[in-house]
Every structure is written in structure tokens, then in C-alpha cells.
Specification:
Length: 121
Amino acid sequence: MADGCWRLTFRAFFDLLDHRILRSFLDQRVRDGVIRKLIDKWLKAGVLEDGELGQIPGSRPQGGVISPVLANIYLHEVLDRWFVEQVQPRMRGPANLIRYADDFVIVFADESDARRMMKVL
């Protein structure tokens, strides 16, 4: 990376996603029982390998059509809101978070803000 640029990534985001927390966020946003049952089925879906359907304990629908939607709901609560409510007010200069699903970039106007944030992360 260029001097002054850092790259952070979520490792095993879907493997570590806590279903209880995700469901609590869904409770706030999704009231339709049919949609909730469909989401639960996606969360419990098995894996098809060599024609055999199997379950992986704690598996998540990584790569599934629902994955970006669930990531956006989860990370809106735990990353986006944290950034707006806790991080931005403490910065010396402007800072912006840009995110899609489980990928994000944070842009800082002040280098000292970026360095402080790097320590937090």
C-alpha cells in the first residue's frame, strides 16, 4: 500500500456472523412472517457438494443471493451507526465511511484521525 494508506478486511465475516444478533436487527426491520421464514431457511441452508446435501455447523449463506442483504442489515447497525454516532464526532476533520455488503473504506481528511482510527480497529 502507498504511504499513509491501509487496508483492513473482515476475515470470515459470514462464518462469524451471530444469528441471534442478526435476528434482533431483523426484528426491528422485517415484520412480514413469510419473509422472516424465508430468511431463516436461507440461514439454515446446507451445502451441496458432489451431489450430496450436507450441513456445516454454524454455516452462513456466503455467496448466496441473500448474503449482501443480510450483511447490509447487520453492518448498518454495528458499523455504520457506530461510525456516525461514535467515530465522526471525535474526528478533527471530516471522515466518511463507504460500504457495500462486507466491504468498506473509511476516508479521513486529517492523517492523525486516520492513525487514531487504525489503532481502534
